[in-house]
Each structure stands twice: as C-alpha cells, then as structure tokens.
Amino acid sequence: MERRAFPAMGTDVEILLDADPVPGVERGLGRVEPEFARLEALLSRFRPDSELARLNAAGELDAGPELLEVLGLALDARERTGGRFDPTVHDALVAAGYDRSFAELDGSAAGGPVPAGGAVRIEGMRIALDPGVRLDLGGIAKGWAVDRAVRELSTLGPCLVNAGGDLAVSGIPADGHWAVGLDTPAGPLTLGVVDGALATTGRDRRRWRAGGEERHHVIDPASGRPADTDLLTVTVAAATAVEAEVRAKALFLAGAEAAALEAEATGIPAVLVTDDGAVRLVGGLR
Amino acid sequence: MTDHVARLYAVAFALLVFFFTWAAVAAHPWGTEATATAQDPRVAALDRRAQRLELRRARVQQLLDRRFAEYRRQLRERQGQIAAIEAAPVVVATPSVSAPSVGTVSSPPVTSTRSS
Hints:
The structure holds two protein chains of two kinds. Chain A is α+β, with helices and mostly antiparallel strands. Chain A has a single domain, classed as T-fold (Roll). Helix content of chain A is 32%, strand content 30%. In chain A, the strands form five sheets. Chain A has an eight-stranded antiparallel β-sheet with strand order 1-2-6-7-10-15-16-17. Chain A has a three-stranded antiparallel β-sheet with strand order 3-5-4, covered by helices on one side. In chain A, strands 8-9 form a two-stranded antiparallel ribbon. Chain B is mainly alpha-helical. The longest helix of chain B is centred in the middle third of the chain and has 47 residues. About 7% of the residues of chain B have low confidence. Chains A and B meet through β2, β6, β7, β8 and β9 of A and β1 and β2 of B. β8 of chain A pairs parallel with β2 of chain B.
C-alpha cells in the first residue's frame, strides 16, 4: 500500500494507493499534491489573489473552468437542499469571526448575523454576484478536489483520498473494503466503504470563542449564524465527496430527529452523533 | 511492261501478302477471351476472390445501413427526450442519493474521517 500525506486547503491530505511502487505509480502520486495546491490557489477565500477572492472583491469575474464547475455544484446543492447548503455564507462566516485561515484565527473580528441567499448569476464564463454577496466554497471545493484526485488515481489501482474528513475511495483493496475510522463519544466506529465517499460535518472542531460566546464554522444560511443544532457531528456516505459534504451539512442543520427521518426516507447512510453523546446509524447503515 | 518492272510488282505483292498474314496470325482471331482466361488458373482465382469480396462488401454495406438506421432512430429518440426536458417546467426535487456500499466493520481502520 503506497501512502502519501501533505497539508493543503487548511487541512491534512492523505492518499492511499493499493499498488506497487513502480515509476508510473510514483508519478501519479506525485501529481496529486501540486494539483491540490493549484486548486487551493484558485478557490481559497483566504488568498487575495485567488479567483474566488477576486470575484468576492469585484462582484463579477470571467472565471476559469474550475471555479465555474465548483460554483455550479454549490448552486445546484443550494437548490436541492432548499438553501441548507449555501455558498453565499461568506459574510456570515466572517461575522462569526472566521475571517482568516483557521490556524490564524483569534476571534477578534466577530459581528452579528448575516443571512445568506443572495443571487449569483452565471452567463457563459462570467460570474456576477448581487451587491453584498460573497462566496465561500471551502467544504465543497475540498470535496471536489478529493473527487478529482480519486478519479485521477483510480487508473493506477484501488485508492483513497482523505482531506481532513472529506474522503473518497475507488476500487476494492486487498481487504475487500476501505476501513475508515470514526471517533464517537460511544467509542471508535469503523465503516467499510467500497467505491464512494464519506464526509463529516460537525462543531466538535473548528470552533472558537468570539464576543463572549462559542462559535463554530457551520453556518445556518437562514439565520446567518453558526448553526444551533442538537447534533455534534454528522457523517454521511454518498457516491462522491461533494455529495457527501452537501448532505452532511444539510443533515447537520436539520437537527437530530429531522436528520434521522430525512436519512431514512432518502436512504442516505449516515452516523448522527448528538450533543448528549448518543450515536445513531441511519439510512440503512448497519 | 518489261520483266524488270514485273519482278518489282511481284516482290511488292509478296511483301504485302507477307505482312497481312503476319497481322492475321498476331490478331489470333480463332481464340476467345473466355477460353483464354479459363485456361489461366491465376486469373480464375482472382475472379473468385473478386466475387467473394463483392459479396462481403454487400454484407458489410447491409450491416452499416442497419446500424446507421438504428443510430438515427436512437438520435431521434434522444432529441425528443432532450426537447421534452427543455420544454418541461423546472421542478426542484431532492434526487435520490446514489450511496456507496458502506457498513460497519471490525477490521482496523486504514484512515479516519472527522469533521472538516
């Protein structure tokens, strides 16, 4: 099993490839880190020269294919989740104090709620934002980069790409599945995944204190504030990391009971961890 | 007419007869083309091969025609579907999620997922 790890997109990226270390495999593995760096340079809201940051600053931009594709996926997700996933939460995140990369965060810039939902128009390569609308593509861009990396590596053998919890696998390794660990208050849980993706959203990490109260990074687009939910984390399995990321965020905002009902009704395999430490496997997950 | 002139005419006539005979023999008027080719096994083999190729060409053409007709039928069908989708009002619905095969296992994890 070949293994690589590197920091990118504000997290640690891990790659596993079930193949012998022949030159083709080494070359394939070596292409992943620069590609993550390239996508981060395009899609990070923290880099003033990124395409996303220039779009947020100017309100309109002739964008490249990567930004167009990720934004298209994000807007599609906004529609499908009834606004529970929304890329226009940038200002709400900043107001909550998440105005720089998490490693540099000090909570000094916290402000009031900023509801999301502004208009984003795409005409050809041109993206135009309504006045005051700014985008954050953090989670979905990471999922998209993971999906791309897995597609690229899948030609070399069974593989797994994990970017800080957003992970996707392709192919069946020698063990018959990819065993992915998940720490829960009830103890460690291991999920066996074959061809698909997992994503976890929660407020157990990336949280800080600002304005005398605890904040976290999962914004409820409706209120424009960090989501007030009885769920601590939600882990979702889906066909792609993008879909898993979107579904995890939508279920997280729904709250434990509604999330369980939705997961059962739509057949989304998910692990729900609530504030009181209870762990529920829903959506057919056994 | 002197004997000398008569000999000259005789020689000229003899040359004329000689060349006509030569031309007639070279033209080979008593042999037909059919009998000539039938007698040559290489030409016969080429003929048979040409016939086989012609039959094969006809069969390939039939196959191509059938496939092209099927392609055009599918194209019309697909164009109809696209037109129907474009004409239909946009319906916002939650699509079913194509989930991977996933379940709890007891084997040691190779990696872990956590909130991102």
